[in-house]
Amino acid sequence: MSELIPEFKHIYSLTPEWRQDFINYLGGTIVDEKMYFSEKWSRGSSFFLEILPDVSVIIIDTIVNRPILLTRMASDDDFWIVYYDLSDSFSKHIVEDVNHKIGYKSKLNFGIVDNKIGSSYLATVGERFYSLRLLIRKSYIKTFFTDAEFEKDFKDVFDDKKKKMFFYGHIDSRSKVILHSLKQNKIDDPNYEFILKGAAFTLLGYLIERLNSKMPSMVAHLEKDIEAVMLSQQHLLSNLLVPFPGIELLANNANMSSTKYRTLYNTIFGVSPALYFKNEKLLLAKELLESGDFKFVSDVAYELGYNKTAYFSSIYKDYFGVLPNTVLKEF
């Protein structure tokens, strides 16, 4: 890492004591669950909450004023750190010297890292950095699996000698809706603690469901096949303004059969490629409606490749619970 970028080394824990090191190095103040950063480094704050004896949640919502490498040091405390990153721009998450480009518009914005492995974050200066982290004790995760399931599917994941990050990918669509809603709330709101706690429990439930139904089957697939599917995501995310390209094209890009591609895609992302594409389009639609750059719903619909405004309005309401013209009026 460049010597021109200062580095702050810290640790995480399931209890709030770790925050004092941030204040000692970066300045700022701690007020109950909230931590306010010094504007020398960033404009924003953080919120830490213990939602269960074995589970805590951290929200970081800030705009970085100058470059800084935040390096989380490995420690013996036996828990996972589950990352959800909805930053407005790309950030770098560095694990075992491997750079992962992450953020709301990145194909990689979800990760599970063992606390016994160090990692670093480098956010984009001048852009909103927004991240939620669940800290979950590994013994708590084990309670959701039978002995047979654990031995067959997760033995290596909990092997302290291996200490490996075992998954890095994309936030599932259901969790993204929860996070997108949470992102609209201000940390200083009087009821923020209750909102965050509800969101954290929902995300935890989705995570356990994902681990139970999707993660074990990841072991059966070759790394190159998983990487091929991840790379095919670039085609989807780069072409949200046109109709869905079809399974055959995506499978060809990944150099596998349509059946194999569809199965592996669903294993990684929890939904079909078509549904994922549709959900991403609708999330982009919400951004466009809120941008103030469009006067009519029809303009947004056509921008996203929908020929019929009525159809676009219908699926938007099904997804978000409100009609798009309601959102447009607010902005």
From TrEMBL:
Residues 226-330 form the HTH araC/xylS-type domain. InterPro entries: Homeodomain-like_sf, HTH_AraC, HTH_AraC-typ_CS, PchR_regulatory_protein. The keyword Transcription applies. PROSITE patterns: HTH_ARAC_FAMILY_1 (PS00041), HTH_ARAC_FAMILY_2 (PS01124). The lineage of its organism: Bacteria, Pseudomonadati, Bacteroidota, Flavobacteriia, Flavobacteriales. One of its GO terms (molecular function) is DNA-binding transcription factor activity. Keywords: DNA-binding, Transcription, Transcription regulation. It comes from Flavobacterium frigoritolerans. The keyword rRNA processing does not apply. Pfam families: HTH_18. This is AraC family transcriptional regulator. Gene3D superfamilies: Homeodomain-like. Transmembrane segments: none annotated.
